[in-house]
Amino acid sequence: MSTDSRPFIEIKDLEYVYPLEGGEQIKALQGVNLAMERGEFVALIGPNGSGKSTLARHFNALLLPTSGTVRVDGLPTSDPRHLGAIRQKVGMVFQNPDNQIIATTLEEDVAFGPENLGIPPDEIRQRVEAALAAVDLLDYRLHPPQMLSGGQKQRAAIAGALAARSSCIVFDEPTSMLDPLGRRQVMDTIHQLNTAERLTILLITHSMSEATLAQRVLVMDAGRIVLDGSPAQVFSQVERLRGLGLDVPPVVEIAHRLRGWGMELPSSILTVEQMVEALC
Amino acid sequence: MLIQVENLTHVYAPGTPFERVALRQVNLQIAAGEQVGILGPTGSGKSTLAQHLAGLLKPTAGHVLLDGVPVHSAPRDHRLQVGIAFQYPEDQIFEQTVFREVAFGPRNLGLDEAEVTARVRWALEMTGLNSEVMSQRMPFTLSGGEMRRVALASILALRPRVLILDEPTAGQDPQSRRRLLERILTWQEETGLTLIIISHTLEDLGHTLERLVVLKGGQVVADGPTRHTLSDSALLNAVGLDMPEPVKLLQTLRQKGRKVRTDLVSAAEAATEIAHVWGLPPPPGPSPRRGGEEGRGA
Hints:
The complex is a heterodimer of chains A (280) and B (298).
Chain A (H helix, E strand, L loop, with lengths): L8 E11 L5 E12 L4 E5 L6 H5 L10 E6 L2 E2 L6 H7 E4 L12 H11 L4 H14 L15 H14 L4 E5 L7 H17 L3 E5 L3 H4 L4 E6 L2 E6 L1 H5 L2 H6 L6 H11 L11 H8 L1
Chain B lengths: L2 E10 L7 E11 L4 E5 L6 H8 L7 E6 L2 E2 L5 H4 L2 E4 L12 H11 L4 H14 L4 H4 L9 H13 L5 E5 L7 H18 L2 E6 L2 H4 L5 E6 L2 E7 H5 L2 H7 L5 H11 L11 H11 L14 H6 L1
Parallel strand pairs in B: 3-8, 3-9, 6-7, 7-8
Antiparallel strand pairs in B: 1-2, 1-4, 4-5, 9-10
Helix pairs in contact in B: 3-4, 3-6, 4-6
């Protein structure tokens, strides 16, 4: 069923309605269209309540469309026969890693996914070892997960998805609760998995600086994707983003303000290094 | 002095293989009406200190005094002067509607229903939630960021004298984050509230608070004006915190021989400084951005 010619994630006219008590409804997604290729690293930003997490939960059929279609590697999520395959292909890492840690040692926790897929024990061992090595936690394999730091726990959750051989990981604000060191570790790991393992990545974040690390940035507002482009394209729309309640990275803001003073600066400036180069 | 922390030491699970010293000989004084940020990496003891300030933990050694009275052993009314919102506030939500959730605390204080209603409205609006729309919603239909704000509103509705916020803006979009901090700071200035914000993100604290206390390994390693701390690269490196981007930019420019100030934390201040040093003429008409409010958190 899967063909390489179509996008890995293909979403058409997706609508999702949360039912409320008393017959009220909340339209969380109102017509989302999106195609993501294999190996793409996409950041998803937007104000609170704009539908980011609702959209992300459609990537592995945690939610099913009220109308429209979501296909993962060609498989429609609304067909229950594909549920197992879709959940194996797309892993999820949430904001609070404590909510998805279940075992008493790190390696058992990482082995949980492949065990449930019915993989033979020898292969599970190999997969767990490779997954822990990929997130640089091999030395901690026998540690109780709750004794790890926040950044280590998030990397443990990533290892769980790797051990299940997911080819896409959806991250829902994975760094919100982490300190700068933990954030760097997780972002380095995400970057590494995308470049070295060609993993497809969707990263939901409130950090505009993190979003600049992706190849493509999507902006959601009120259940729709309203901007879609490279980080430089999206963050050049300073006024538009402000209007949506979003910020731009500090360096982009400084460049924007300096342009207001009449300074000529390239629109591609996203980092301190690029800004220094333009100024000196 | 409103809050006095004297030689506070806290040891978790003493005498077991899991024994861990979370705070060592911490000394700290906070005056009424101060706004203080407590900053430090994971495991530095921030949240343990916050719980001590609220009287929720018993010191292994040392004292935490509120108005001269040890807060842990003080009567309930004394302890209730300190409100604390935890790091994962959505864990504390249990009621069926947003209104009842926020009303729970004030009702337990024995306030009459009109006062309870007024406080719930005020508290929801403080956190940027529309009280009309939100009051009858079930908490579990809210987004993650909205749930956090409901949990914060339930603390605000108690009108504490000392408000401790543990990572208050995690999971909030940038504008909600900035507005939330601004409303709390305005309220703080109007009422003389003592505000203590625990965080590891410099972006949040950067230009909002007057004083920063930096913790590492359970000890206070710095305590002083925010601007000073956030431009101290040696200190930030030592505790594993990232320098704010505007400071990083200014310091790099300075290393390249440009005579810029390096202690400017907000993007607005940094841009103005660069414009001056580069000798740019002032922009025509009103300034390129409306400064003030927006400059603060940018």
